[in-house]
C-alpha cells in the first residue's frame, strides 16, 4: 500500500490523489494513478469537470436520494492500471488501491482477471454495490485496517 500511496503523488487532480499497484505474490506488475488523458490539460491546469448525479437508495427500509459528484476529466487509477497492464499479468493477481473503487472501476476490475482488491480509504458512495459485485465474482475485497500511509503522500487526498 505504501507504493500505491507513493504513486498517488503523481496525480494532478485537485480533489483526490489515488494510486494503485498490481502485484502477484511479491512481484510488482504495474502502477497507475488518476489523471487526465495523456497530452490533455489536467485538473490543476483546466479545473475539474464535475458531473452531478442523483441516485435513489434504500437505507433501513427508507428510500433516500444520494447526490454524487464525479470529475469526468480524470481517468481513475484503476482504469489506467487496466489500460497499461496485460491481461496475462492480471490473471490471479491482487490490486492495492489507496481508495475503495467506484462502481465503474469495480466492474472493470471484476472483469480483469484479478482475485483480490485491497484498499485503504472508503468510498461510501458506491460501497454496497461494489461489495456485492466482488462477493458475486468471488474476488477478495478488503479494507486495510490500522494502516498509516507515508506522511508525505497525503497532500491532495483529503476529500470525502
Automatic annotation (TrEMBL):
One Gene Ontology term of the molecular function aspect: zinc ion binding
Keywords for the protein's UniProt record, in alphabetical order: Hydrolase, Metal-binding, Zinc
Protein name (database record): CMP deaminase
Assigned protein family: Belongs to the cytidine and deoxycytidylate deaminase family.
Transmembrane portions of the chain: none
UniProt-listed SUPFAM superfamilies: Cytidine deaminase-like (SSF53927)
InterPro entries on file: APOBEC/CMP_deaminase_Zn-bd, CMP_dCMP_dom, Cytidine_deaminase-like, dCMP_deaminase, dCMP_deaminase-rel, Deoxycytidylate_deaminase_dom
Reported cofactor(s): Zn(2+)
UniProt organism field: Paenibacillus yonginensis
Example GO BP: pyrimidine nucleotide metabolic process
GO annotation, cellular component aspect: cytoplasm
Active site (catalytic residues): 78 (proton donor)
Binding of Zn(2+), residues: 76, 102, 105
Domain CMP/dCMP-type deaminase: 1-141
Amino acid at each position: 500500500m505504501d507504493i500505491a500511496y507513493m504513486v498517488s503523488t503523481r496525480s494532478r487532480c485537485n480533489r483526490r490523489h489515488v494510486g494503485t499497484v498490481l502485484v502477484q505474490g511479491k512481484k510488482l506488475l504495474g502502477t497507475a494513478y488518476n489523471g487526465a488523458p495523456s497530452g490533455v490539460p489536467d485538473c490543476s491546469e483546466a479545473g475539474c469537470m464535475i458531473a452531478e448525479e442523483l441516485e435513489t437508495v434504500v437505507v433501513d427500509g427508507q428510500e433516500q436520494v444520494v447526490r454524487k459528484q464525479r470529475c469526468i476529466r480524470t481517468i481513475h487509477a484503476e482504469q489506467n492500471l487496466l489500460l497499461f497492464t496485460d491481461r496475462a499479468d492480471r490473471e490471479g493477481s491482487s490490486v492495492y488501491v489507496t481508495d475503495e473503487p467506484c462502481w465503474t472501476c469495480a466492474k472493470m476490475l471484476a472483469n480483469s482477471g484479478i482475485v483480490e482488491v485491497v484498499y485503504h480509504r472508503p468510498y461510501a458512495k458506491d460501497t454496497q454495490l461494489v461489495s456485492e459485485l466482488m462477493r458475486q465474482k468471488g474476488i477478495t475485497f478488503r479494507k486495510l485496517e490500522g494502516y498509516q500511509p507515508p506522511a508525505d503522500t497525503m497532500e491532495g487526498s483529503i476529500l470525502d
